[in-house]
Amino acid sequence: MSDTRGNVIIRLTDVDKSFDDERVVKKLNLDVEEGEFLTMLGPSGCGKTTTLRMIAGFEVPTSGQIFLEGEDVDDKKPNERNVNTVFQNYALFPHMNVFDNIAFGLVEKKVKKDEIRSRVEEMIKLVQLDGMEKRMPAQMSGGQKQRVAIARALVNRPKVLLLDEPLGALDLKLRKQMQGELKALQRRLGITFIYVTHDQEEALTMSDRIAVMNRGRLEQVGTPEEVYNHPETKFVADFIGESNIIEGYIENMTDDSIEVTMESGKAVIHETGYRMEEMVYLCIRPENLKISMEAKEGFRFRGQVKEHIFIGSTNKTMIEMPNGQMLKSVTPAEDELIPVGTAVNVFWNPGKAVVMRTKEEQIYNVIEQSVEIEGMTNDQIF
Length: 382
Ligand SMILES: Nc1ncnc2c1ncn2[C@@H]1O[C@H](COP(=O)(O)OP(=O)(O)OP(=O)(O)O)[C@@H](O)[C@H]1O
Ligand SMILES: [Mg+2]
Known about the structure:
Elements: E1 8-19, E2 22-33, E3 37-41, H1 48-56, E4 63-68, E5 71-72, E6 83-86, H2 98-108, H3 113-126, H4 142-154, E7 160-164, H5 172-189, E8 192-197, H6 200-206, E9 209-214, E10 217-222, H7 224-229, H8 234-239, E11 244-253, E12 258-262, E13 265-269, E14 279-284, E15 289-292, E16 299-311, E17 314-320, E18 326-332, E19 343-348, E20 354-357, H9 360-370, H10 378-381
Parallel strand pairs: 3-8, 3-9, 6-7, 7-8
Antiparallel strand pairs: 1-2, 1-4, 4-5, 9-10, 11-12, 11-14, 12-13, 13-16, 14-20, 15-19, 16-17, 16-19, 17-18
């Protein structure tokens, strides 16, 4: 990570948002650094747009505070914040040509005509729409319209640009191309980007850091490498990339290892800091899960090869475990395959299983404590 950064430009402190009685954003705490490309990633309805709209000033938090450049912006209207937004739909003015669409914000601010012209032309070059100044939105492709929307936001020289699924409406090829262009633009201009998407691949390829959201809460914030290789929760492991997630509990431990008992077998893992009997999830990426005819030390975990799926440069092998769970192993296409139907030993590369605590234990405790609270439903307890 670059050392030139480090200034916090946006800070969210315990931000909560309810619509009517529904809490859609829950105690969000997040620092965004100057010049950073931060992506908010999460499934539909998890609160991404709502969070962005609160930062932009279109929604007011129910509680908590938002700081822009150290200043509490509670009473600042959207146009008083040094932030611009590119919305999920491009929201261009259909009756205005490209030039006028981009110039709109500057005209509103009563910037001098000469300056408007030079700034708009600079933007048109930047997003590579030279020669299209007079086109109307209806005469442009989705990708071109998206560039107009980005130019229209950038022309105001915001410190922060909020982008809400800006590429969602584009086809895969154009989306990939625009991803590269957007990322390069962000680097060149040094503007802080908060980018919203529910596409995990987009998040992994573009971001300095990813904030993974689930049901209004932040599950984990980290670099793409951190959230992929060291997911802190089952949700993150499941949502980002493909995973094998196996439930188990700790049956034995030594000074430097734990033995995890799963429904389908046992494995020794060189990790510490857990308690006996603790319930855990193991997350093993398909590229780290291996099978072999021979037994492997530390593993007593057997399954049966069910299917091979050819995916170009790799093969995906599905392995059925005694409890019916299907595990995935991905290997280079040139590797020899073990025939379907063969009983195999399942293992993984040392250090490649991520151990995650389950929340069940806490929940059991709550249930135990709450048996005496008569008349309360689970919804009220949790
Ligand atoms: N103005 C509103 N009034 C009532 N409920 C709302 C309002 N805006 C959003 N919600 C609700 O808040 C929740 C979060 O919505 P939000 O738009 O932030 O999700 P999102 O993460 O952006 O989803 P998507 O990926 O589908 O765009 C949803 O359940 C939604 O129905
Ligand atoms: Mg949204």
